[in-house]
Amino acid sequence: MELHKALSSITLDFFVLFSSGSGISGQHGQANYNAANTFIDTFVHFRHAQGLPAAVVDIGVMDDIGTVARSEQMVDIFRNAGHTFLREQDLLNGLSIAVVSQQASPRSQLILGVSTDKALSDPTNRTIWKRDVRMGVAHQFERVSQIDANTGPAFQNEHAAVQALAKNHPEKLMEEDTLMAIARSIGSALSGLLVRPFNDFMLADPLDALGLDSVVAIELVSWLQRSFRVGFMTLEIIQCSSLLNLAEQVARRLVPN
């Protein structure tokens, strides 16, 4: 606040504040500390409302510098809880983004270290933000990653083969064998999302009959982006009549413009 007042008559290119991720997720037994960091985050909005530049970097657990790094006991506590540790270079990278993100936008508040080295489904994972509804997308990414692993090398090879066809022989993407391969790959992913055996799936069955709903469709959109590098809207997935029909849509989007 004193710096804000002292520099009020000077035109600044940037005004960067450092806060803690505790201002976002909280920290047990640290109410005053949490409140102070929340104030720092809010102060950025205050400056923006006055037309002044500002950005904040909310720092997570640091590994090689700072208070935690100097205490082996604290390192063990955070590591056992599942926190991902940041390096000094991560902080410098965050600072470089903050310097050029001074206007009111999501980029003007950068949160570092919202990640975990343990699966969120692991009962020993005690990261504070684990049950925060705002971090729900992290659970979605974990499920998609698990599906990627469960589809196995055979389907990973099929993805690569389809990508190669799109690049070298796009005219073959709409051939029956290719569409069947794409449909089987999508079906395997869908079976993982629905926790159902892939053998229960018929490639020509309606997707809603297989169990697809809007929530599962959102996760399938993420999987298609990761596996085939194609983008879909959730509604487009829901409107597909079958796995084969969805495979056709994927093949068409793989064709180079």
From TrEMBL:
The Gene Ontology terms for molecular function here are: fatty acid synthase activity
Which superkingdom does the taxonomy of this entry point to?
Eukaryota
The alphabetical list of record keywords is: Multifunctional enzyme, Phosphopantetheine, Phosphoprotein, Signal, Transferase
Q: Cross-referenced InterPro entries, in alphabetical order?
A: ACP-like_sf (IPR036736), NAD(P)-bd_dom_sf (IPR036291), PKS_KR (IPR013968), PKS_NRPS_Biosynth_Enz (IPR050091), PP-bd_ACP (IPR009081), Ppantetheine_attach_site (IPR006162)
Alphabetical GO biological process terms: fatty acid biosynthetic process; secondary metabolite biosynthetic process
Which SUPFAM superfamilies does the entry link to? ACP-like, NAD(P)-binding Rossmann-fold domains
- Which protein, by its recorded name, is this? Carrier domain-containing protein
Recorded source organism is Pyrenophora teres f. teres (strain 0-1)
